[in-house]
């Protein structure tokens, strides 16, 4: 590698010359570093601006709302015989209202959870609780002659109540880092586990004392109270809207809130406004092999003993803290072993969250113990029922089984959110869909199995089904990290391809609108739903394509700082610089490190953003003035790397070809810009993986050489195109 003639930093370039054009694409990087800064040591940014106490308060409110998902189902059971009598229907027909409730309980979170991942947690909580409260009013007033209305309103009730658990999981993903996520899931699970325990008691008491309609009046009042609490105190937490909590949400998201929680950054700064998210189809999560394995592993155990694990809300706090401890132990171990690249500028804790961190091991390594405990107690429980022993035996086994299944559930649910934290509600909704489906199937066949083989062998068969899915634990630990890394790279590569494709289109458009070549050399086409111009000259096209491929290679590594298209005169004097500034988010900061790339704008949706770039680029001549074809101007493509980055070099692949990089002219790079140059901002877009902005600089030399093409401007100010 060699240095540019007047450059203070190493500069590299590749040159191609042809009679029809003169083009150079170059790579420039600045190796200036602070000698007092040790490589790899960076102050870690907090995952969220909320304090630990504020997080507990937020999760407690989410847990309170989560009570209503199981409560509305279980409080209804004691009233079924009474309602069958008053509606003049059989118990089987009244039980159909339970069936339709379960169906909606599995489906509705897929709708509300997806909306919350796009539009925020707070409005979805309010919408669900409002729908639940109003549906309970309708149920309480339903005439006993309208059985169809009872069925319909039970579906509406399920649509309002069932999604609160998925929404709460999304809140935890927003505010809790992986190192503390297990404990918060333990706290959150307390509410949904209390609901089934108190539901039948409350339902039986209200039915006996005030009648079955009192059940729905109770649910109406209690859900309305919860609605008021959420409205007054729950802040918006969606990271794609408020970042780490330092970005204020839209005005409507703050209406009615009592400011009881002060949010302050530890470093006194505010996070940049995150990119706007598009809708993500939650069914696409079923295409992730690691997610599918976890769903089968988790929900293959739970429906087998449906109901018994709900009685262990307090123990969920213990298992949650155990998950946090396991995570930190493994994290600290990897830090001490130094299994991280010292060239990466990350804090110690951030390095532990690198893609090499065995997240699956941290969450699942205690599961074999709980699985053995659970399966052993299950078999013993069945034979206790068969032998009709003292009730103390089955109760003790239920207690142990409940603790074991809660531990399994918390570990898997926490890992699921770790895998796709940007879709915390959606992934929980997928888990809920599988659980409800398998639970309904189990309920439909368990009595048939008991009648055929008896209690003892029934539970042996159920334990065998759990054993059949247990090897998936090894599959997840072994292949989960591989699948996770492949998914991350695939999404990043798609975004890189989208960015480089746009840059190629933009280069052709720049050459056309700045009259570097005759207009008849270009053909008008349509890209990103807007007219663009493409060169028809094969040699020029080959050159631009090669340059863009070189850019793509560096972009995929996260090395690129800027791509500059330089318009220069015949004396190699830079007249204009079209600067594509690139901020790579593939290697994220610590507070975004655990945000999956699924949080970013999908590569397929980038076209609508690039369209606005090209529309403004086509109108740039009005701002810059016209360059004459007779001026014999040419162009260069300059690639500038981030500080401390080096270009890709593969000498063994060169063979007879020259090295890919040769010195660039310093005056063509952004480091050679005069302070008197004018800057025009064109457009910016934050994709969440790579953030891109485009600006145009008019050099001082252009204003001196071609005063007729420039207009009077205020010095030192950026102009918007």
Automatic annotation (TrEMBL):
Topology of the protein relative to the lipid bilayer: Multi-pass membrane protein
Sequence segments annotated as region (Disordered): 1-44, 701-721
Pfam name, any one: MFS_1
Protein's cellular compartments: Membrane
GO molecular function: transmembrane transporter activity
Sequence ranges assigned to domain Major facilitator superfamily (MFS) profile in this UniProt record: 58-481
Span of the signal peptide: none
GO cellular component term of the entry, any: plasma membrane
The UniProt record lists the keyword Membrane: yes
Compositionally biased region (Basic and acidic residues): 18-44
Protein origin, superkingdom: Eukaryota
Keywords from the named record: Membrane, Transmembrane, Transmembrane helix, Transport
Transmembrane domains' residue ranges: 56-77, 93-112, 124-141, 147-172, 184-202, 214-234, 364-383, 395-420, 432-450, 456-475
Keyword ATP-binding carried by entry: no
Span of domain HORMA: 493-696
Annotated InterPro entries: HORMA_dom, HORMA_dom_sf, MFS, MFS_dom, MFS_trans_sf, Tet-R_TetA/multi-R_MdtG-like
UniProt name for this protein: Major facilitator superfamily (MFS) profile domain-containing protein
């Amino acid at each position: 590698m060699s240095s540019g003639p007047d450059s203070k930093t190493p500069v590299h370039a590749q040159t191609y010359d042809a009679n029809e054009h003169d083009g150079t694409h170059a790579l420039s990087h600045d190796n200036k570093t602070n000698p007092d800064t040790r490589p790899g040591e960076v102050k870690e940014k907090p995952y969220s601006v909320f304090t630990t106490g504020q997080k507990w308060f937020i999760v407690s409110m989410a847990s309170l709302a989560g009570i209503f998902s199981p409560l509305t189902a279980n409080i209804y059971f004691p009233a079924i015989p009474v309602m069958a009598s008053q509606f003049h229907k059989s118990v089987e027909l009244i039980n159909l209202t339970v069936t339709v409730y379960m169906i909606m309980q599995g489906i509705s979170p897929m709708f509300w959870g997806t909306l919350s991942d796009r539009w925020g947690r707070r409005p979805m909580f309010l919408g669900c609780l409002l729908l639940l409260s109003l549906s309970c009013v309708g149920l309480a007033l339903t005439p006993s002659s309208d059985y169809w209305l009872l069925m319909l309103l039970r579906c509406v009730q399920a649509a309002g109540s069932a999604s609160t658990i998925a929404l709460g999981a999304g809140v935890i993903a927003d505010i809790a880092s992986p190192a503390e996520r297990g404990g918060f899931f333990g706290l959150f699970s307390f509410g949904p586990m209390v609901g089934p325990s108190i539901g039948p008691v409350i339902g039986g008491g209200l039915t006996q004392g005030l009648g079955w309609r009192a059940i729905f009046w109770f649910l109406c009042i209690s859900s309305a109270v919860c609605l008021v609490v959420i409205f007054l105190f729950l802040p918006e937490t969606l990271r794609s809207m408020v970042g780490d909590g330092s970005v204020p949400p839209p005005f409507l998201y703050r209406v009615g809130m009592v400011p009881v929680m002060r949010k302050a950054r530890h470093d006194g700064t505010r996070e940049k406004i995150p990119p706007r998210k598009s809708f993500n189809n939650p069914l696409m999560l079923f295409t992730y092999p690691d997610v599918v394995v976890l769903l089968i592993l988790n929900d293959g155990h739970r429906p087998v003993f449906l109901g018994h694990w709900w009685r262990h809300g307090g123990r969920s706090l213990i298992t949650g803290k155990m998950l946090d401890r396991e995570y930190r132990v493994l994290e600290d171990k990897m830090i001490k072993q130094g299994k991280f690249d010292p060239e990466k500028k990350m804090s110690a804790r951030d390095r532990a969250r690198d893609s090499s961190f065995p997240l699956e091991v941290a969450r699942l390594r205690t599961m074999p113990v709980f699985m053995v405990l659970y399966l052993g107690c299950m078999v013993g429980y069945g034979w206790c029922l068969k032998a009709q022993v003292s009730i103390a035996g089955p109760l003790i086994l239920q207690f142990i089984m409940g603790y074991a299944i809660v531990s399994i559930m918390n570990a898997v649910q926490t890992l699921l959110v770790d895998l796709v934290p940007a879709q915390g509600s959606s992934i929980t909704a997928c888990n809920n869909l599988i659980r409800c489906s398998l639970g309904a199937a189990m309920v439909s066949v368990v009595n048939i199995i008991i009648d055929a083989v008896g209690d003892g062998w029934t539970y042996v068969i159920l334990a065998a089904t759990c054993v059949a899915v247990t090897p998936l634990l090894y599959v997840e630990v072994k292949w989960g990290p591989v699948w996770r890394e492949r998914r991350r790279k695939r999404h990043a590569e798609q975004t890189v391809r989208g960015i480089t494709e746009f840059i190629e289109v933009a280069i052709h458009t720049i050459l056309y609108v700045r009259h570097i070549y005759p207009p008849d050399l270009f053909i008008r086409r349509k890209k990103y739903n807007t007219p663009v111009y493409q060169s028809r000259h094969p040699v020029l096209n080959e050159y631009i394509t090669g340059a863009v491929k070189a850019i793509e290679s560096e972009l995929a590594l996260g090395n690129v700082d800027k791509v500059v298209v330089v318009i220069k005169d015949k004396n190699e004097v830079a007249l204009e610089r079209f600067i594509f500034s690139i901020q790579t988010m593939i290697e994220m900061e610590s507070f975004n490190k655990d945000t999956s790339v699924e949080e970013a704008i999908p590569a397929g949706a980038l076209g609508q953003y690039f369209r606005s770039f090209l529309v403004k680029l086509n109108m740039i001549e009005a701002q810059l003035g016209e360059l004459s074809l007779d001026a014999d101007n040419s162009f260069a493509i300059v690639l500038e790397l981030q500080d401390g980055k080096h270009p890709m070099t593969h000498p063994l692949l060169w063979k007879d070809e020259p090295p890919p990089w040769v010195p660039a002219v310093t005056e063509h790079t952004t480091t050679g810009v005069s302070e008197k140059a004018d800057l025009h901002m064109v457009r910016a877009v934050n994709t969440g993986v790579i953030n891109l902005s485009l600006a145009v600089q008019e050099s001082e030399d252009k204003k001196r050489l071609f005063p007729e093409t420039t207009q009077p401007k205020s010095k030192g100010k950026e102009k918007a195109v």
